[in-house]
Each structure stands twice: as C-alpha cells, then as structure tokens.
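Troubleshooting entry. The earlier prediction with coenzyme A gave an output that would not parse, so I re-checked the input for stray whitespace and re-submitted. Clean input:
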Amino acid sequence: MSWRERLARAWRRRVFTHELLCLARREVAMPVPPGDEKLEQRLVMRRATAADALLWQESWAAKVPWYLERLKSATEFCWLGIVDGRLAVHCWYNRGPYFDPMMKHTFDPGPSGAYFGEGWVHPDFRVGGLAIAFNRRIYGEVLPALGVQQVLCYYATDNVASVKLQARFGFVEVGWLHHWKILGRHGFARAAMPKGREQGAEAAAATTDRTRSPRT
Ligand SMILES: CC(C)(COP(=O)(O)OP(=O)(O)OC[C@H]1O[C@@H](n2cnc3c(N)ncnc32)[C@H](O)[C@@H]1OP(=O)(O)O)[C@@H](O)C(=O)NCCC(=O)NCCS
C-alpha cells in the first residue's frame, strides 16, 4: 500500500468518513431464489456456540471475545457456514431492536422481526455463490423455524456485492441514511432516495406497518 493510500485510510478511520446506507427489509415468507445445489451439498450450517471460538480464530481472532460475549445474549444469534472444515461464512441476527456498538445506532426490525448484520464470506470463497447458498437455507428454513417474520438490514449503497445479494433475495429498500464519522463521533440523518425508488419504499411501508422507523 502506498503512503497516499495509507494516509487516506488513516483519514477515513480517524478523522472523517461519510457513507450512504440503504435500509432494506425482507418478508421471511417470500420464496427463496434458486442456488447452486452442488455448493449447497458442501456447505455445512449450524448455529454458533462458544465451542466455535477456534473456528473463528483464522479470520476473526481479535473479535472472538466479543463474539463469545454476544452469544450469551438472549436476543442475538449467529449462524455459521463451513466448507471443507473451514469457516467460510457467518451472519449475525438479533431479535428486535439492535444497538450497533460500533455505529452507535439502533436498528429496529419491528415486532416479529430480526435485524441482520455482519454478513460475511471468507475472501477465499467469494463470488462463487456461497452467500446465495447460505441465505437460501437461512430464509427458507432457519428463520421460519424461529418464527422470525421479517428481516431488516443495512448496506453501503456502493457495496455492489451486497446490493446484488439483497436484491436477489427480494429485499425492499425502506430508506436511506447518511452516516458520518467525525473524529470518532457518529452521526446519522435521513437521506433522499434516488428518484423513482421512493415509491417502492412507500409501497413496502404501506403493505405492513410492522417495521418501525429507525431512530435517526
Ligand atoms: C457481500 C458478500 C457477503 C457476498 O458474498 P459472496 O459469496 O461473494 O456472494 P455470491 O457469490 O453469493 O454473490 C451474490 C451476488 O453478488 C454478486 N457479487 C459478488 N461479489 C461481487 C463483486 N465483487 N462485484 C460485483 N458483484 C459481486 C454476485 O454476482 C451475485 O449477484 P447476482 O445475485 O446478481 O448473481 C461478500 O462479498 C463479503 O463478505 N463482503 C465483505 C463483507 C460485506 O460487505 N458484507 C455485507 C454487509 S451487508
């Protein structure tokens, strides 16, 4: 990494960063899109427990203590996807409102809802359909079995992979937020959605009032 890139990264981390976040919602009962059956056969999925600390070591060593703490929560849970014995994918969910300790913001999926955050695929397994395979089981089997009826998530609007993934699974945009981090302090404000997309969001909000507006 050049000194310019290092400087830009340090600036973004410590001084100023701005991103546009899209909040999106999915009704769990919606049918799941097709996926790669061969890949699905290789994918072993299970709910994470404290015994998975070792599995997290390869990619998330620094976060293991925090993950173990979160697993003690009555509302938070994590699902893992293992391919050939390696942790290839994980996603975290929270029943009800979730206060994100990094962003210092509460995301509220509404009654019977779950907040979905930290969707991650190991770089060695990306762009091969693994997130699709994992989510097919999450939305087709795991969340319905837990009685979760809708899911709220956010993603940066320039995160192409995430935008495509959520679109494939039928997530509907329900709002956009500006997110600033200035000298370590976070700020949020509603952002205007691009022309033509507000109607989709309004229609989604009108079909059900189960999702409450997030605090901004
Ligand atoms: C986002 C992420 C989970 C996707 O995982 P993945 O296994 O690579 O995704 P898949 O191969 O299943 O592909 C899902 C969709 O994204 C597209 N995609 C994946 N990587 C892409 C990339 N680098 N550029 C463009 N599109 C990409 C695929 O083409 C597919 O699109 P389609 O539905 O139109 O066919 C993964 O890139 C990741 O972990 N990123 C870092 C963490 C992150 O950004 N998490 C999202 C937080 S909301």
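This one parsed fine. The CA atoms of residues 26 and 170 lie 6 Å apart.
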